[in-house]
Amino acid sequence: MQTVFSVGTDALAYGMVLFVISIGLSVTMGLMRVVNLAHGAFAMIGGYSASYAAQTLGFGYAVAILIAVVGTILIAIPVERLLYRRIYGAPELTQVLMTIGITFCVIGIANYVFGPTLKTIPVPETLRGPVDLGFRSIAAHKLFAIACGVVVAGGLWFLIEKTAFGVKLRASVDNAAMAASLGVRTKIVYAVSFAVAVGLAAFGGIVGAELLPIEPYYALRYMVTFLVVVSVGGAGSIPGALLACLVLGAIDTTGRYLLPEYGEFFFYLAVIAIVCTFPRGLLGRKK
Amino acid sequence: MAAIETTSPTAKAATAPNWLLRDLAGLAVILIVAAIGFLLFPNNLALLTRITAIALLVLSLDLVTGYCGIATLGHAALFGAGAYAAGIAAAHFDINDPIAMVAIGALGGAVAGLVSGAVILRGHGLAQLVLSIAVVHLFHEIANKASEWTGGSDGLSGISPDPVFGVFEFDLWGHTAYGFGIALLVIVFMLLRLLVRSPFGMLCRGIKEDPIRVSAMGASVQGTLLRMYVISGAVAGIGGALNAISTQVVGLDSLSFTTSAESLVMLVLGGTGSLFGALIGTVSFMVFKDFVSAVNPFHWLTIVGALLIAVVLFAPKGLYGTAAQLLNRSRRQ
Amino acid sequence: MKKILLTAVAAVALCGSAYADTIKIGVVGPFSGPFAIQGKNFKAGIDAYMALNGSKVGDDDIQIVYRDVPQADPAQSKALAQELVVKEGVQYLAGFYFTPDAMAVTPLLKQANVPLVVMNAATSAIVTKSPLVVRTSFTTWQTSAPMAKVAKERGVKKVITVVSDYGPGVDAETAFKTTFAAEGGEVVDSIRMPLSTNDFSPIMQRVKDSGADAVFAFLPSGPTTLGFVKAYNDNGLKNAGVQFLAPGDLTQESDLPALGASAEGLLTTFHYAVSHDSAENKKFVEAAEKAIGTPAELSFPSVGAYDGMHVIYKMIEATGGKQDAQKAVDAVKGMAWESPRGPVSIDAESRHITQNIYLREVAKADDGTYYNKEIATFENQTDPGLAAAK
After folding, report:
1. Quick check: C328 pLDDT over 60?
2. Residue ranges of chain B with pLDDT lower than 70?
C-alpha cells in the first residue's frame, strides 16, 4: 500500500512538471493553430536566462524567474512579428519547417554562447532537500512544481474562459475575419497570446529544470514529449492537458517502476491506445 | 493549366506524348545530375550514394504525405525496417546477393508499411502525427531489444554483399555502390511516375482533396491509403537496403525519430506532392548540410536552421513548387 | 551551377598545392548536437598535444581535418571516413566517440591503407574487427570491473545494478556482475531502463525495495546522469546509506558543476581524472584548458585524444611520413609512455591501451568546486572484456 502511495506521488509530481512545461504549447497549437515545434526552444531560452540571472548576476530565485520570463518574451516579440506572423494559417507542414528551422538556430546559438555543458538554476534553501510526507520523503522542489502547475492551470482557465480577452481570443480563433469586422484587433490578440504561450514555456523550462536539465539540445530532446502531451489532452484544452499529464505521468511512472525494461513500450502503446480511442484528445474541443 | 484549356480539341492527343516527354525529361535530368555528381565529386561518391538512399526515403514519404495528405513524423520506421531486413538476411542467413538483399529490403519495408499504416491511418492531423511518432519509437525500441539479431545500439555489422551480377565489386571508392544506387533510383522513379498517374494514384489525390466525396463514390478510403502505405514502405525499404549494402552497417539511427523528422524537412523543403520536389529537396538539403558541416563542424546547425526559415519566407511552396509557380507565371505573361 | 564548378575548381587547386609534405589526419567525432561537449574535448586534447609538441613531425606538417557525426550514425560516419580518405587524402583516421561509428569504418582500413586510432569508443570488440585499429581510450569493461573489487573490499554484500538499456550500459552491467560474482558478492536485481527516462524516482523506489547495500549505475553523461544523481539524493537513498558505485563516465568533470553538492561522496572507477597529480598531467591540463577556452568543460575524452595524437606522431616517425598502415601500427605495438593519466602502454596483441584504473571520490575543493579525488589505484589493467568475449 505504501508503495502504491509512493509511486502515485511520483506520478503526480512528474505529471505536473510535464503540465507546466507543455501547457504553453497547447495554447499555440490549440488556440492559435500553429504547430510550434520551437516550443522547447523557448523553454530552453527561459532556462538559460534564469541560470544566467541566478548564477552569473547573482539574483534570487524569484527574481531570476521573473527576469527569465520577461526576457524570453522580449526575445520572442520580434520573432513573432518577423517569422510567426508569416505562418499563421499556413499549411501545417510549412509551420513544421519554419519552427524546426527556428529550433536549429536556437540550439546552435545556445551552444555557441553558453557552451555544451549542463546549466543549473540554483533553487533557494527552502526548496532544497527532501520533505517528509509521513509515508515517504519527496523533494521540496517537486512540491513547488505541483503548486506551480495548479496555479498556472487555474490562472489560464480563468484568462480564457472568464475574461474579455479570452472571449476575443476564442472569437479570433474560430473566425478571424468575423472577429476583425466586429472590432477585435486580431493581430494584437494573437501577439498577446503568443507572448503568454512563450512566457509559460519559459516558466515551465525553469520550474521543470530539476527534472529536464537545461542544455543546448533540450529544444529537440523533449519535443516529442510535449507533442504527445498536447495531443493526448486535446490541443487548446486546459483541463484536457492537465488530465493528459496526470494520466501519462501515471503510466510512465508505474511502467518504469514495474517493468523498467519495457518502459518505452508501455508508454507508447498506451499513447496509441488513447489516441485511437479519443482522436481529438481526452477533452479536445470539437471543430 | 491555362495552356491545356485553350487547346481543348486536341488535348487528348497532345497530353499523352506530353507526359511521356516530361517523364523522359525527368529521367534525363536525373541521369545528367548523377553524371555531373560523378564527374565533379569523383572522390565523394559515398556521400552521393547516401543521398541516393535518402532520396528513396523522401520519395516514399512523398507518396503518403504529398499524394495522400498523411502527416507523419515516423517514416524512418519503414526505411529502417528495410535496412534491417536486408542486413539481417546478409549477416545471419548468408544472403549476400545485392539484388536479393534489395528485394528482401523492399519486402521488409512493405510489411513495416502495412503495420505502421494500420496504426497511423486511425488518426487525423495532430493525432496522426503523434501516432506516427509512437510507431517509430516502438520500432526503434524493438530493434534495440532484439540485439541478438540487430546488434542493438552497437549496430549490425558483418554485412558483406557479393559483387553485383558477380562482376562489379563494392570498392573503397564507391563506384559500384553509386552506380547501383542510381540504377535503383531511376527504376523506382519511373515506376512511381507511372503509379502517381495511374487511376490508383488519382484516387489517392482525390482522397487528399476530399475523402468524404471519394467514399461517397463507393471507393474505400482506408483500403486505398493502406495500399499506398505498403507501396511507400517497399520504396523506403529499397532505400534502406541500399544504405545497408553501401555502408555495410545498420545502426539504430536508421529508424529514429530524427531521421524521420529530417526526411520530412527535406520533402517540405523541395515541395510536397511532386516527385521532383522530393528529389530536389533531398539533394539540396544533404549537399548544403555536408558543405556547411565540413566548413564548420562545430556551429553548422544555425546555418541550416536559417536556410529552413529563409525557404519558408521566400519559397513557401518549397524549392520546386515555387520555381514551378514562377515559371508558370512568366510563361502566362 | 557556375558557382559549384568554381568551388570545385578552387578545391582541387587547394588540394594540389597543399599536398606536398603535409600529412593529414581525419578526425570524426560529435562536434555538434547532444554530445558536442565530448567532441570539444577531442579537439582540446589534439590542440594541446600540437601546442606542446609542435605541428611538425620531421619535415612533415601535420594538418587535422574535422568531420562531424552528431549522434551515433554509422552510415554517415562511413561516408565521411570514405570522403576523408579518398578526397582529403588523410593518412590517419582518428576520433570516434560512438562504437557503431568506429565499427562502420573498420572494413575500409585495409583497402585504404589507413590506421584507425580510436580516441573514445569503448566497446571491447572494436579492436578485433581490423588489425589496423589502435585504441587509446578505455573500455567499459576495463573501467567497470575494478568497481566490483572495490565493493567487495568495502564490505558491500548485496548490490543492485541500474543501467541504461543500450550497448555500453549492458557492457557495464555484465562486467560488474561477472566480476562481483567471482569475488563472492551477490547482485540482487538488475534493472535496465530506457535511454529516454526523465524521472528516476520510480527506479529509486525499486532500489529501495531491493534492500541492496549499494547501487551500481551506468548512464550516458549529461542530462540523464544529472537526473539520476538528483533522484538518488532526493529520494533519501544517500541518507539511508545506500552506496553509489559507477564507472567514471557518470562523474565526468564537465558535469560536476551541474551535479554540485549532490555528487559529493560518489565513488567511481576510471582511467583519468583531471585532478590527477603528476607533472605530465599538469602540463597537459594547462595546455588543454587554454585550448578548450572554458576550463570547467575539460574531461576524459581530451586525454584519449591527446594520447591518440602521441601514438599517431610515433607512427609518422616510424614510417618517415610514407603511407604504410601496417608498418605504422606495428611500430606502436608494445610502446609504453608516461601519459597525463599515468603510465600506459599499447598491448601488442590486442592493440588496446593498458593503463591504471583509479578509484575516485567526488570531493569539494577549497574554492568550492567539486572534483574527482583519486584514492586508490589498480595498476596496469588490460581489457577484461576481450577475454570475456572469447
Report:
1. yes
2. 1-17
| Of A262, B255, B138, B153, residue with least CA distance to C166 | B153
Distance from CA of A83 to the nearest CA of B (A): 8
List of chains touching B (3+ CB pairs within 8 A): A, C
Choose among C267, C279, C262: nearest CA to C228. Answer: C262
Measured CA to CA, the distance from residue A214 to residue B293 in angstroms comes to 25
Identity of residue B292: V
Tell me, yes or no, if C170 comes closer than 8 A to chain A by beta carbon.
no
Asked if C111 has any chain A CB less than 8 Å from its own CB, the reply is no
pLDDT digits (tens, 9 = 90+) for A60-74: 999 999 999 999 999
Closest chain C residue to B160, measured at CA: C107
**Angstroms from A71 CA to nearest CA on chain B:** 21
pLDDT digits over A188-213, tens only?
A: 888 899 999 999 999 999 999 988 99
Q: C199 and A215: CB-CB below 8 Å?
A: no
Instruction: Decide if C213 contacts C157 (C-beta within 8 A).
Output: yes
8 A C-beta contact, residue C364 and residue C345 = no
Nearest CB among B134, B272, B305 relative to A108 is that of B305
CB contact under 8 A, A265 and B301: no
The Cα–Cα gap between C69 and C49 comes to 23
**Can you read off the three cell numbers belonging to residue A239?**
483541463
Q: What amino acid occupies position A226?
A: F
pLDDT tens figures, C237-267: 888 899 999 999 999 999 999 998 889 999 9
Distance (Å, whole) CA A234 – CA C82 = 48
Does the pTM of the predicted model rise above 0.80? yes
Grid coordinates belonging to C291? 585550448
Q: Give the residue from B141, B153, B285 with the most C CB atoms within 10 Å of its CB, the best one to mutate.
A: B153
pLDDT of residue B17: 63
Interface test with B, best of C7, C32, C69 (most B CBs within 10 A): C32
B244's grid cell = 545497408
- CB-CB under 8 Å, B258 with C68: no
Mean pLDDT, rounded, for A222-251: 90
Contact C340, C284 (CB under 8 A): yes
Q: Which of B138, B257, B268 is nearest residue A97 as measured by Cβ atoms?
A: B268
Closest residue in A to C228 (Cα) is A211
Non-local (6+) Cβ contacts of A285 within 8 A are A30, A234, A235, A236, A237
Alpha-carbon distances of C336 from C121, C318, C342, C346, rounded to whole Å = 21, 15, 11, 7
Cell 520577461, residue? Answer: A70
Give me the residue label for grid cell 559507477: C246
Around Cβ C158, how many Cβ atoms within 10 Å? Answer: 15
DSSP C286-338: HHHHHHHSSGGG--THHHHHHHHHHHHHHHHHHHTT---HHHHHHHHTT-EEE
The answer to whether the beta carbons of residues B141 and A265 sit under 8 Å apart is yes
pLDDT reported for residue A234: 86
Tell me if B306 and A96 make a contact (CB, 8 A cut-off).
Answer: no
What phi and psi, each to the nearest 5 degrees, are found at residue C90? -70, 145
Task: Measure in Å the smallest separation between the Cα of C378 and chain A Cα atoms.
Answer: 30
Place of cell 548576476: A57
Identify whether the C-beta of residue B275 lies closer than 8 Å to the C-beta of residue B283: no
Q: How far is CA C47 from CA A175, C301, C308, in A?
A: 60, 13, 12
Q: CA end-to-end span of chain A, whole Å? A: 43
